[in-house]
Amino acid sequence: MEIKISSNIGSKIPDFKVGVITYENIEVGPSPQMVKGRLQLFQEALFFDLEEKELTDFPGIKEWREIFKMTGTNPSRYRPSVEALYRRVKKQNYLTPIHSAIDLNNFFSLLYEVPIGIYDTDKLAGNISIDIGGSTDKYDGLNGRLNSMENMIVSVDDHGPFGSPYVDSERTKVTEETKHAIQIIYLQAKTPIKEAQQLTKSLMDMFLEIHGGEGTYSVLEG
Known about the structure:
The protein is α+β, with helices and mostly antiparallel strands. The protein contains 6 helices and 10 strands; from the N terminus they run E-H-E-H-H-H-H-E-E-E-E-E-E-E-H-E. The protein has helices at residues 7-12, 33-52, 59-71, 81-90, 100-112, 193-211; strands at 3-5, 17-24, 116-120, 128-132, 138-140, 146-148, 153-157, 160-163, 181-186, 214-221. The strands form 3 sheets. It has a 4-stranded mixed beta sheet. It has a 4-stranded antiparallel beta sheet with strand order 3-9-2-10, with helices on one face. The two termini are 18 Å apart.
């Protein structure tokens, strides 16, 4: 499976980059106490930070709002997924455990201040292109709604769009039956390439520590 970034993105978003991790033979299940504890403690500490700061004081949220504007998306109406997580924490509507893959995904997103998607590769077909959505691009999202992806960054396979730093699709979601997955880290564009590679590898190593299996990673630039 090949993944590429469309030239449409490169022309609109300078230095756009994503970390991509492919996992094989993983075991997804209820999160171990270490993961649940880390997620809870981080949210509690973040809540106190959010009492003193505005959301846009966090560099990742500020940058991703700007990136949404560059593609023509209104970030006050369609918020980057990481901002949506931070808003939940601000209201003390803390994230509750779902399963090990989603819980780690949410933890990393909060920690690194970036949107992150994880997808079951057995539910994908052909190669993947990261592009800017058109008027006909839409899917049933994990938010329970049919979402238009027009003017949004979107990941597309042979069946159509399935993922975005706004919301991901029901079609490719990871479950406890998932054995093979692909993770897309929507990095801050300003992150230097070496730092982006280190962050991506660090995330992969912790994921494999919990789920077993094998992983490979790369950082793609627009």
